[in-house]
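Kindly inspect this chain:
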Amino acid sequence: METIAVIDFETTGLGPTSGGRATEVAAVLVRGGVIVDAWASLMNSGAWVPPHIQALTGISNQMLVGAPDAASVMGELARFTRGCPLVAHNASFDRGFWQAEMQHAGLATDPAHQFACTVLLSRRLWPAAKSHGLAAMTQFHDLRFNGRAHRAMADARVTAGLLLKVQAEIGRRFALDLGDAVVDHSLLTLLQRTPLRWLRRGLVEHVKARRRPAAPAGLPGPVSCELAFELEMAGSDNIQGVAGSRAGSP
């Protein structure tokens, strides 16, 4: 059974390409529809936390003085999440710090550590919501949590709760199409980049692809929902034919 690690970083405020560093990280493990484990740590990179970020997160420079060094924390995080695909809310942010801090620590890349994003998934499942930020989704779904918002463990647990809502909604909305297939990480990463109007088609293609043998070499596979969307926007009436010619081009 797949275990997904839900990740949240707290930081000094700037992005990692502008000198920002992580100050705290949490990982919550989700398996079979429940939270099975959790881990968090402050991390001392030597970076200064500005006053407005201290007020937002409650993490002060004094707290970081006695925290473990960033490299050792990232090593422990890598061990805790080994082999697990990842989820974050606004994943581009957390992915940036994940990659930067792993690089600072000199740690090898785990190929399993690919991110799905609960912001993107929420936009596709609940487009009528006024906002898809974490605080808004917490209220929208009446998610309960302990701790302070903008601390890594509290935010990671809320995101894990949102992930379970996402998986349950996909399972409910597309139950007939899914059959006995599970709403796993690979399906989430597909749906998060699928246009809203092609959501069901993307899911059906994913389920079918997992059940059929690979196509012989040289033959075009079925057209993807993303390609179909591009072709529709281009006004093509021969989707399968164009897809075949595209498959044969470099």
Summary: The two ends are 37 Å apart (CA to CA). The beta strands are 3-11, 22-31, 34-42, 86-88, 115-117.
